[in-house]
């Protein structure tokens, strides 16, 4: 049997193991130090306010650089960019660990290194996903997305407690661990063999040419009615979902739930996501994507009903399980269709446009939760967000461009 058929394992596809290893180690490097960054910012500055602003500035840096990062990715060789990403990030975390270990890490140096890392993340983070379509091909992209969803859940679930444990043992340890992960990612990329991209070789130099490519890419995205429909529906859904999660965390804190029980909710969510990814990888090629998307949105809306009935801890756990289980399949169907249909030369810009737009929807969710919860109460807030999620279900069901998306083997037969 050919290793590129849908029945065979993705790990038999040439270059996929190297890609998967590189992408996984890059994610591990971020996950290990993610929770430590905020703790270190407070320890070095001695100010909660400074630590809060530091987190905000890092987020803004990532978003701003991500806007242009997609164009940067499309104009350059993906393997070269992956080597640069893993090499630069590894060097940054190694430097941070050495500076901390020798007592020379000031808040200013820490901020400079972290902002540099955020800029590299924004510019190059889309490279790995842009390269994936070249590795597995359009027909297996949905299955690869399912694998990624489960892998991401497992890494993030283990990364935060591991980072916190290492930080407790020695402040420099998480940064050295991240440097090791990035070094392993670099080694995997070194073995990765991707075809030379004609578009990268022919990209015209200069700021003007870069801006023209950026505008052309975003125009292409906005001209696709299917992509824009999906982005609006996903954005509305994500806004309600993110706000609901923020509200749940605030509710648990306000009712005196201890930190261990709050963290266990996230662990349960991660386990449910991992289970969902195992199911998704087996069925994502057999489900009509359009009807699957509508059904998953509807199922997720029903998953919030326990919170309408009760705000007890058991209801929260049940809610997190119900909404986390179908998310890998949702991501495989939506992202699989959009990005498997996107030409290789536009992968970076399309991902930047889609993700940035959805991030804008979700960015205000925390503020909305903080403002509305005291005014309308937890139950009222859940009902309001549930209405938004329900609207996204109706919009998806009524939109023929979304509703009629076929199974993945037939995606080549429909327009994006």
CA-to-CA gap between the ends? 31 Å
Content-based structural category: mainly alpha
CATH architecture annotation of the largest domain: Up-down Bundle
Helix fraction, binned, reads: over 70%
The number of helical segments is: 18
Radius of gyration: 21 Å
What's the rounded overall pLDDT mean? 86
Unreliable spans are 1-6
The main sheet comes to: none
Order of helices and strands: HHHHHHHHHHHHHHHHHH
**What is the name of the CATH superfamily of the largest domain?**
MFS general substrate transporter like domains
Number of strands: 0
As a percent range, the share of strand residues is under 5%
Number of domains: 2
Anisotropy-based shape: globular
CATH class category label of the largest domain: Mainly Alpha
Looking at the structure, the CATH topology of the largest domain is Growth Hormone, Chain: A
Task: Summarize the structure in words.
With 416 residues, the protein is mostly helical. It is 81% helix and 0% strand. The chain is built from 18 helices and no strands. 45% of the residues are buried.
Descriptive keywords:
416 residues; mainly alpha; Growth Hormone, Chain: A; 81% helix; 0% strand; globular; disordered N terminus
